Task: inverse folding
């Protein structure tokens, strides 16, 4: 895959649809080999490849840096967790897995309530879905759930009075992520993983025909 031809919008769509349940890459691989890119095109391709391949590692890195900035501020920690969740809910796989696990847990105590938390069925015409299935979380449309979680996190940020601190922590986390993605040399495993994800995307599109 030529990552130089991948736009930022394509990368965001891929990160939104890809499965995030896979464990992070080992630290021995994450901090293995660093080199300076020889050109802007090489740097652009390397940055996109590493952001996609080490996505789980970068997400954990950002959460840890934000957590270190609020060790003595429990309200800010809760706000950071809710903010991270609201961002994670934008990923289709994470949203579906979260909704399924919550529904299973609720079913053990209240089957009637769990039945209401199921997503609505998509009409099927001639064996095909009539429209692309919308993502629901606990029976609600995803945008409603994300809006509620984001609003609560914003209120907590306001109450903690640490908005400037979180901006500094977020800037440091993003800078660390970009620096690592810029200088970490993509290995063969990263390229093979890219081809595997490409095959899955092609097969998914074929199965929807």
Result:
């Amino acid at each position: 895959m030529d990552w130089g031809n991948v736009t930022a919008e394509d990368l965001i769509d891929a990160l939104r649809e890809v499965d995030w349940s896979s464990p992070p890459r080992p630290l021995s691989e994450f901090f293995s080999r660093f080199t300076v890119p020889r050109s802007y095109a090489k740097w652009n391709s390397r940055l996109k490849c590493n952001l996609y391949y080490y996505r789980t590692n970068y997400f954990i890195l950002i959460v840890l840096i934000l957590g270190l900035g609020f060790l003595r501020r429990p309200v800010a920690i809760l706000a950071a967790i809710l903010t991270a969740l609201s961002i994670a809910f934008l990923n289709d796989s994470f949203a579906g897995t979260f909704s399924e696990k919550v529904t299973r847990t609720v079913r053990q105590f209240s089957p009637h309530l769990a039945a209401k938390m199921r997503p609505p069925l998509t009409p099927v015409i001639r064996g095909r879905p009539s429209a692309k299935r919308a993502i629901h979380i606990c029976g609600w449309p995803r945008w409603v759930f994300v809006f509620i979680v984001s609003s609560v996190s914003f209120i907590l940020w306001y109450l903690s009075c640490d908005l400037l601190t979180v901006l500094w922590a977020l800037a440091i986390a993003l800078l660390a992520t970009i620096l690592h993605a810029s200088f970490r040399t993509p290995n063969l495993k990263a390229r093979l993983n890219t081809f595997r994800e490409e095959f899955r995307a092609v097969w998914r599109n074929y199965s929807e025909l």
Notes: The two ends are 24 Å apart (CA to CA). The longest helix spans residues 163-183.
